[in-house]
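Kindly review both lines to help learners:
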Amino acid sequence: MRGPHNIWRLIRTGATFERSGAMRVVLEAVDAPRPVRIAARVIGWPVQWLGLKGDPSQPPILRALTALGPAYIKFGQLLSTRPDIVGVELATDLRILQDALPAFDLDIAKAEVEAELGIKIDEVFESFSEPVAAASLAQVHKAVVRETGQVVAVKVLRPGIERAFRKDVDAFFLAATIMEIIAPFSRRLRPRAVIEHFAGVVDGELDLRMEASAADEFAANTKDDEGFRVPALMWDLSSRRVLTTEWVEGVPLGDVEAVLAIGSDHTEFATRILQTFLRHALRDGYFHADMHQGNLMRGPNGDLIALDFGIMGRIDTYTRKVYAEILMGFLKRDYTRVAEAHFEAGYVPADQDVASFAQALRAVGEPIFDHDASQVSMARLFGHLFDVTDRFGMETRTELILLQRTMFVVEGVTRTFDPNLNMWDTSGPVIEKYIIDNLGPKAIARDLAATAKVLARFGPRLPALAEAALINLNKTPEPAPKFGPMIWALCGVAVGVAGTLLLID
């Protein structure tokens, strides 16, 4: 970490934020104390001239981040997924942050592809177009494979982008450290942890093999999903800095007028978008976490096509079951059950009161029912949820925040095509099916079977493990605990395994 260079970057960043008016927006979003706001204004005013101008037509925070370049744009996009840190209003503003940047030269792109894949462009591709899209990390070219005639999309990382990002990330770490030292109020936001998460996300996006793997896994999970499509990956033409997929034709969902002009059932299409996302999250535990209009298309046959798999979300089996119970509890307005599910999963500290938590959840849930989507402010709803989270000491769970944020984005996309779509009525069938498949008798039998397989693998070691545990208990200076609970637990395992074996037979 080179101090002087990082300090200069921070000065330039602060000056740009002050010059664009973004400094005030950020300090208000993180609820900075008044003395800190005054100090920022006093320090920032003399160095405003060092700041970048940006696009005056953009809101302050977007103007500042866009002017400062790719790393700042990406950081803003990441913060749009963390309303628990920056607040719902600012997170919503950051969601529309665009990372379109000028393209780099075609000859440079070809040289990158040849160096990465060890090929000659003219020998492998019949044609290789000028950039058709350019973003902060990479740009995309349309090409035709000479041997097969297949049309493909070739994504190429910007030259030197890795080194540029690491420099800015170093400066971010310095800024986070300074914040934690001189602004104690910021420690609750865990700024260094946020930067560490950002650095991990960016490292993944700067290795296109990771995106290729994500696209391949996502395609395998969804291959049988009617009306949904993921472009096929071409592993032999992909590497760390190059990603090649089939070229897909369609209308970008960002071009709303063109999609609406197709004249099909827009309510069905909106419903499919929402239900598709929920199905992936609950059924597979692996979902596209950046489902804004720019990453979605409508194919000629009406398919929903997903693009860009740099940001994906993953939820483990247990968390999916808990989350499904929570959602179903909301759907049935059974707030006591929703509260109990939170406590059972350990999301809320055990010393909190279940009834009080259920009452707080009622205040969140009731306003959203019996209204269509156009009458419900999801921003206010999530704002209230995060207030409840803070009040009851719930630990922040990044994967659930990402899921909730993506649901918010997806609902916004569906509203574009059916403003009156009710999120809860539309979600109900998918959630109910998941619960039937994963929380009913068959699911219990599957869980017991999985437990039996694990015990079978460790079976020969169980006597030794039990003996070691008993010896350690006898060595404890405290009075030995009663063995009743242990005996009952062993009996429960034995009964479970026996029952499982009977079911398997």
About this structure: The longest helix spans residues 161-182. Confidence is low (pLDDT under 50) at residues 480-505. The longest strand covers residues 125-134.
